Amino acid sequence: MSEPPKEQPSLPARRAFVVQFRAEVELEHDSFTGRVEHVLSGQALKFASLEELVAFFVHVLRQEQWPRGP
To answer: What is the pLDDT of residues 20-46, one digit of tens each?
Structure first.
């Protein structure tokens, strides 16, 4: 008898990021600056806009979708 497939966690660690905003962030002026790091791979970026932050998320999450070799 085979075991049923294990459920994937709804918040997998491979999709975890740490985002740190600089003290000078001005939310009323949409000024987002800081650093983001992908927890699993260690890839990091200093960002100067919300667009750069989102682009980093997209870049890392797209890499995750490619099959990995042995």
So the answer is: 998 876 666 677 899 999 999 999 999
Nearest to 19 by CA among 31, 33, 30: 33
Angle made by CA atoms 60, 40, 23, in degrees to the nearest 5: 75
Q: In what order do the strands lie in the sheet with 44-47?
A: 17-21, 34-38, 44-47
CB 15 within 8 A of CB 61: yes
Beta-carbon count within 10 A of 35 CB:
14
pTM assigned to the model: 0.74
The CA distances from residue 35 to 4, 11, 55, in Å, are 41, 21, 13
Spatial separation of the C-alpha atoms in residues 37 and 45, rounded to whole Å: 7
Structural domain spans, the chain = 17-64
